[in-house]
Amino acid sequence: MSEERSSDRSEQSRPASSDLTFTRRTAMALLGAGGLAGVAAGSASASHESEGGDGDQPWYDWEADVDAHDRDLENLHAIDVDHIFTAAREADRIVWKDEEGVFHADGHNGEIARGENVVPVIQAALDSLTEGRTHKERVLVASPATVPNIEESQTIELPSYAVLDVPVRLHVEYEKWDSSDILLRANDKEHVEIPRLTVSGAPWMPIRLKSCSNVRLGEINVFFARDADPNDAIRIDDSGDSGERSTDVQIGSAYIENGTQHSVETYGADRIQIQQVIAKYQFGCAVLLNDTTDATIDSIIGYNPVDESVGAAPQSEADNTNADSRYATFRVTNPTNNVSVGQLVSREAPRGLHIHGGTHEISVGDVTITGADTPGAMITDPNNVVINGGVIKNCTGEGIRIHSYDPYPGNARGVTVSDLRIYDDQDETTQAYAIRETGEHSMNNRIVDCDVRNGGTEGLIEVTSESTMVADNVGDGVASGTVTLESGSDPAARVEGVSRARDVTLELRAKTFEAPDASFAWDHRFEYNGDTSQWDLVVEWVTDPGEDLTLDYIVDRPQANIGRYPL
After folding, report:
1. Which of 304, 155, 172, 177 is nearest to 230 (CA)?
2. What SS3 state is found at 418?
3. What is the pLDDT of residues 403-459, one digit of tens each?
4. Domain boundaries, the chain
5. What angle is formed at CA 462 by the lines to CA 457 and CA 468, rounded to 5 degrees?
6. Three-class SS state of 29
7. Are 451 and 502 in contact (CB under 8 A)?
8. Residue 502 buriedness (CB in 10 A; 0-12 / 13-18 / 19+)
9. Residue 78 has what DSSP assignment?
10. Cα(219)–Cα(501) distance, rounded to whole angstroms?
11. What gap in Å lies between CA 173 and CA 177, rounded to an integer?
12. Which ranges in 49-167 belong to alpha helices (H)?
């Protein structure tokens, strides 16, 4: 994330600038009247002649096409268009502020509304769009504004087939827990688009989409005030009047600071596409998917330090550290299925990843999880989950924990963890295990091709299910260690209890610590001991070198399953 964007957290919650004001002629240019394509982010338009003009130009007719003759379009190279850009004739309605601080909503046919509060003016512009339209029409908010803390509703209701483009900042003055108003809301609407939106201050919820379809959110930035107590920044659910699920939603990028709930949450939604979510000082999740199907997310990035002096905004005096939230940077639950995430980055969150019960078909391509205050990744009772690569380090508890609860027997099934580096390099290590499977009902899971060296103080890899595959991991398997092969002894060595699971396939990886100059060879077998109910590793000499050898060994469980376990 950009240091410029996030270096001064107090700056982000300041009221919007009032410098960007317009004359009517300049505002009309954004509707195509003068052909102006850009508007300054911090300055007004170029200078104007009087309304009377020269007599040979129709200055009296403000919506007419005008030949500027060096009056309105001079010094365009000086106009800053970093924050606002719109093609000529792109906006159907424009909301702007004059030098007296009054907001205006104008269309091609004249003024629609005016007032000192921007919210009703924006609402009037949206309500004035063509009735019964089946194509999108656009409202452009061209001046930054402050939404006042008043008793009247401060919610803007979005209609169908509408584009609300807000490339300037809206600063919301709601007091702490003072209002449940939602800044932008759509209820049972379709074809709704918000290409750009920047919100600061203390809105209770910036965006709420209820039972909507075909929604496009572009670049969304929310800077909650440090002492705010908001709800989600973006919530998409099935709570509309129709009760229908929200469908076909796209989000370009969302940047959220100081949230006390979740940055992006879905509940009862299908077909969600998200490019990037960045959550900084977020008390809840960066992304929380509830009862959601067919979701793809390119990247999720969360920075959630526990230190209360710089940590996520507390929900109450009792919950004054981020660790109390127990939420992961990315969480799926209730149930959610068919989800693909390209990259997950989580720093100092309570958890990096939590895949909860009843979910299935979840794929995370790459994770970087550092400093989680509980297990880095918690996987409880899902089916068919893949975590395929990345780094997990310096967590409290386990790097990855896979668990099945007794009330849901067999639910943690088909979980694959592969190509991960899991370790703890802190001066005082806190990571107990690299990968740990618990509960008695896991089935057909796979832990393969991971590097778990220095991954835990109590153990590296621990599994409970007889059907879990553990193979080709660096540093550990279902058993590992060092044994001395004694010259002249038969057998050369026996390692007891390499596995207590009877119905398993075992395989040995081993090498001598230092090989002698003399010829030597050894062989091995796994022998089940009925008295102790465990497998022993037995090593025998084929060629005795005449001296003891030290053998490093790892026992794997590649599992020769042929379909006898339930899928």
Report:
1. 177
2. strand
3. 988 665 557 889 999 999 999 999 999 999 999 999 878 888 999 999 999 999 999
4. 326-476, 479-556
5. 160
6. helix
7. no
8. exposed
9. G
10. 53
11. 12
12. 118-127
